[in-house]
DNA sequence: ATGATTGTGGCAGTCACTGCCAACTCGGCA
DNA sequence: TGCCGAGTTGGCAGTGACTGCCACAATCAT
C-alpha cells in the first residue's frame, strides 16, 4: 500500500536518497540565509559535499532542489487516487483526496511538514521558487488527469475531469499560500493547520459557486 | 475606449512599439520553424535587426518575446474591471469580464487573434512557453486581485476575491488550451470561437459545482 | 542650436546547464 | 576470492542566457 519498499533497498538506493536529502537540505538552508539569487549551484553543491556536476544529476535546476517536499506530497496522489468512486460527484471527492495528501503536513511539525513549511515561507518572497513550483505542478497535472480518468473510466481529454483537477489544484495552491501567511503572522496560539486552511478555502469556493 | 493614445505618441514611443513588434514577430516565427530550444537570443535579435543587448531591454527572456499577445490581452483587464457591481455575485461577473477580454480574439482572424493563436499552437508542444505564460499570469494575478478589491471595496487579501480570480484564471487557461486543440484538429468548417470555448468551459465548471 | 533625456551596441563577465570521458563503487557470480 | 557489468561520480570544456558598464547616437524641450 505504501510506495517506499517496492524497490529492493540496496546500498546504492539508500545512498542515493541520502545524497538527495543532503542536497535539498543544503539548498533550503542557503536559500533561507542568502536568498535564491544570492547563492549559486556551486555553493549548494559544496555545502552538500558533492560536485556541481553531480548536483545536476539529482536536480535540473537549483530551485528544484528546494521543492522535494512539494514533489513528495504530489507523489502520494497515485496512492490515494484508487479511492475514487466513479458514480459519485467528482469535485468533492478530489477535495477529499487532497485532504488525505495534506494530512501528512498538518501543522508543519512532522519532518515532511516542517520542510514544506520552510519552502512555503521561502516562496512568499522568492518568485523564482513560485515559478518552479508552478512548473512542477504543471508537469504533474497531466499525470493526475490520466490517473483520475483511468479510475473513473473516461478518456484523459475529458473536459469535466480537466476542469475538476485544475480547480482543485488551484484551491490547494491558495490554501498553501494562506497557510504560510498564517504561520508568518502568528504570534501566539497553536501553529495553523494546513488541512483546516484547505477546508476553509474549499468552503469559500463553494459559497462563491452558489453566488 | 482604446489603450493606445493615452500617452503622447512621440516618435520615440512609436519607434519603441515598432521594435517590440519586430522582435516578437521574429521570435514567434523562429520558434515555429525551429522550436524554442532550436534558436538562441542572438538568432532572434539578428532576425529582428537589433543587437542581443537591445533584445534584453525589451524582453527579459526569449520566451517572453513570444508572449506579447498574452500580455496585451491581460492589459485590458484594467479597462473592463470598472464594470464590476459590488452588490452582485462576483464569479459570474469575472467570467463576463473575461468574455469581454477574449472577444478581441474570437476565431483568431484579427491580428491580435492570429498572434494569440500562433502562440497557443506553439505552447502545445513547447513546455518552456507554457511555463513562461504561467509566470506572466502569476505576475499579473496580484494586480488583478488588487483592482477587483478596489472596485468592490474590500481588502486585497480577501479570500473570496482571491479564490474567484484564480478560479476564473484557471478556466481561461483551460479554454485557451482547448481552443488551440480544436483549431489544430479542425479539418473542415469554421474556425473555432474562443469565446464559445470559454463559455463551454464555464458551463462544465458550473455543472461540476452542482455535483 | 544646445543641453538633458533616452535608446542602442559592444564588451567583459558570471552563472546555469550539458556532453563527454576517465575513475571508482557496488552487486552478483564463477 | 576474484572479476565483470552496471550504476555513480567528478572534472573539463563548451554553449548560451543574462547583466553591468561605457561610449555613442538619436530625440525632445527650450
**Structural class given helices, strands, pairing of chain A?**
mainly alpha
Low-confidence blocks of residues of chain A: 1-7
User: CA-to-CA gap between the ends of chain A?
Assistant: 41 Å
Mass-distribution shape of chain A: globular
Helix content range of chain A: over 70%
Structurally, the number of domains of chain A stands at 2
Oligomer: homodimer
Q: Please, what is the average pLDDT of chain A?
A: 94
Indicate the radius of gyration of chain A in whole angstroms.
18 Å
What is the CATH-assigned architecture of the largest domain in chain A?
Answer: Orthogonal Bundle
Largest sheet of chain A: none
State the name of the first-level CATH class of the largest domain in chain A: Mainly Alpha
CATH topology of the largest domain in chain A: Tetracycline Repressor, domain 2
Question: What is the string of SSEs of chain A from the N terminus onward?
Answer: HHHHHHHHHHH
Show the largest interface. A-B, 35 and 35 residues
Number of strands of chain A: 0
* Tally of DSSP helical segments of chain A: 11
The CATH superfamily of the largest domain in chain A is known as: Tetracycline Repressor, domain 2
Strand content of chain A: under 5%
Amino acid at each position: 500500500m505504501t510506495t517506499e519498499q517496492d524497490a529492493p533497498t540496496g546500498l546504492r538506493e539508500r545512498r542515493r536518497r541520502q545524497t538527495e536529502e543532503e542536497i535539498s537540505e543544503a539548498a533550503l538552508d542557503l536559500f533561507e540565509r542568502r536568498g535564491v539569487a544570492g547563492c549559486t549551484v556551486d555553493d549548494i553543491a559544496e555545502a552538500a559535499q558533492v560536485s556541481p556536476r553531480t548536483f545536476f544529476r539529482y536536480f535540473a535546476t537549483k530551485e528544484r532542489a528546494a521543492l522535494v517536499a512539494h514533489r513528495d506530497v504530489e507523489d502520494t496522489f497515485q496512492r490515494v487516487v484508487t479511492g475514487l468512486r466513479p458514480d459519485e460527484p467528482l469535485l468533492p471527492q478530489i477535495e477529499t483526496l487532497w485532504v488525505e495528501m495534506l494530512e501528512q503536513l498538518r501543522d508543519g511539525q512532522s519532518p515532511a511538514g516542517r520542510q514544506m513549511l520552510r519552502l512555503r515561507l521561502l516562496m512568499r518572497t522568492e518568485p523564482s521558487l513560485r515559478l518552479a513550483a508552478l512548473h512542477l505542478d504543471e508537469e504533474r497535472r497531466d499525470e493526475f488527469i490520466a490517473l483520475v480518468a483511468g479510475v473513473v473510466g473516461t478518456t484523459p481529454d475529458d473536459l469535466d475531469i480537466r476542469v475538476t483537477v485544475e480547480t482543485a489544484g488551484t484551491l490547494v495552491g491558495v490554501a498553501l499560500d494562506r497557510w504560510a501567511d498564517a504561520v508568518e503572522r502568528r504570534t501566539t496560539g497553536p501553529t495553523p493547520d494546513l488541512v483546516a486552511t484547505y477546508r476553509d478555502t474549499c468552503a469559500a469556493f463553494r459559497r462563491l459557486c452558489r453566488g
